[in-house]
Design brief:
This protein is an alpha+beta fold and about 350 residues long. It has helices spanning about 5-15, 35-60, 80-95, 120, 140-165, 170-175, 175-185, 205-225, 235-250, 270-275, 345-350; strands spanning about 60-65, 100-105, 125-135, 230, 255-260, 265, 285-290, 295-300, 305-315, 315-325, 330-335, 340-345. Helices cover about 40% and strands about 20% of the residues.
Length: about 350
């Protein structure tokens, strides 16, 4: 155990989510493959190759290699049951392999066969990267959400002005002076901190209108408080499996999220630190049960807490294919090819140091 793995173990042991590092994976073998699964796999492979190609073109002294499992088998194929059982066994012993390992070229002499069965060789890696892909244009999403937040904030401030004006302000001060003072102190910078319970008054028409205004404000605030950022999304279960790999090999681990216009990287250490700080909840991370992740608890870290490693990505070409299953059912999907990314060398230089 080196200093890095010791630090990670400490962060996990102190994490408020109570991460079970001894978790054993025992999922049921998938019975059939879906179009969504095949498309996600193809997109993930494309994103990984994008990172590998860009990195190896940019650095002369380092070399990035594929490390994660890349078998083309899917549910229903001959041999899949055995492959899946072996994969479960691997997760329960060495943990979850990252997709990419980065080595110094001097540690991979010309002609040397890369042997990932040799633990000592794997420990020579300077960085391990888990590549995630997303079907979003991050820059457009961010711009759209910023505009929406600004509109919603202005709507909230306008409603508050009406509530504080006569006759509603006088009535509110009489009924709930604390809420009145809180609304009177609100401005654009602290609006996101405003929270109150919905109150109902009906003794007069003005009180009914005041109640309606407060309900409308509450609805607008709920929109303002919703997560408005795209995220890097490690499942809580994966945290334990990544830690298991780190404790065995001691290689610094990173998550790299690839969008179709940019990509961001964040260290596993920062993911643990951010998600441990309750004061950052809602702004820099959220904890959700994601339908796309089988309802498992997922930590969603704001991508802007990471470093942008691709400032530009060109769209890939898409071609349609189909897979014939054993009973004759056809599953249609697309393959991704081409496209390139402009690597931000400054961000990667910091990692390689």
């Amino acid at each position: 155990m080196n200093e890095y793995s010791t630090n990670i173990a400490k962060l996990i042991s102190e994490h408020p989510l109570g991460i079970n590092t001894s978790v054993q994976v025992a999922g049921h073998t998938p019975a059939a493959v879906s179009s969504a699964f095949l498309i996600n796999k193809e997109q993930g492979d494309w994103a990984e190759n994008l990172v590998l190609t860009a990195f190896n073109k940019s650095y002369a002294d380092y070399f990035a290699v594929h490390y994660g499992r890349d078998e083309s088998l899917s549910a229903g194929d001959d041999g899949f049951d055995e492959y899946y059982a072996e994969y479960q066994k691997e997760l329960n012993t060495i943990g979850k392999r990252p997709d990419i390992l980065i080595f110094r070229k001097e540690d991979i002499p010309d002609g040397m066969k890369i042997d990932f069965l040799d633990d000592n060789f794997v420990r020579k890696a300077v960085a391990a990267i888990e590549v995630r892909s997303s079907s979003f244009l991050n820059l457009k999403y961010t711009q759209t959400m910023q505009e929406k937040v600004e509109r919603t904030a202005q709507d909230c401030l306008a409603i508050i002005q009406v509530i504080l004006s006569e006759p509603y302000g006088v009535l509110l001060k009489q009924k709930n002076e604390t809420l009145y003072r809180n609304l009177a102190s609100v401005n654009e910078s602290n609006l996101h901190t405003l929270s109150f319970r919905c109150i109902s008054w009906s003794a007069s028409e003005d009180l009914q209108k005041l109640t309606d205004l407060l309900k409308k404000l509450k609805e607008k605030l709920s929109l303002l408080h919703k997560r408005d950022f795209l995220s890097i999304t490690p499942k809580l279960e994966d945290i334990a499996l990544v830690n298991r790999w780190i404790q065995r090999f001691g290689v610094p681990h990173y998550y790299l999220q690839v969008f179709f216009d940019s990509a961001y990287i964040i260290s596993f250490e920062d993911i643990l630190r951010i998600s441990s700080d309750s004061s950052l909840s809602g702004m820099d991370f959220s904890l959700e049960r994601d339908v796309k992740n089988q309802g498992k608890q997922t930590i969603k870290i704001n991508v802007n807490r990471g470093k942008q490693v691709f400032s530009e990505i060109s769209m890939p070409e898409l071609k349609s294919f189909y897979k014939e299953l054993s009973k004759g059912r056809l599953v249609f999907y697309v393959k991704f090819s081409g496209g390139h990314g402009v690597l931000n060398l400054t961000a990667f230089d910091e990692i390689l140091k």
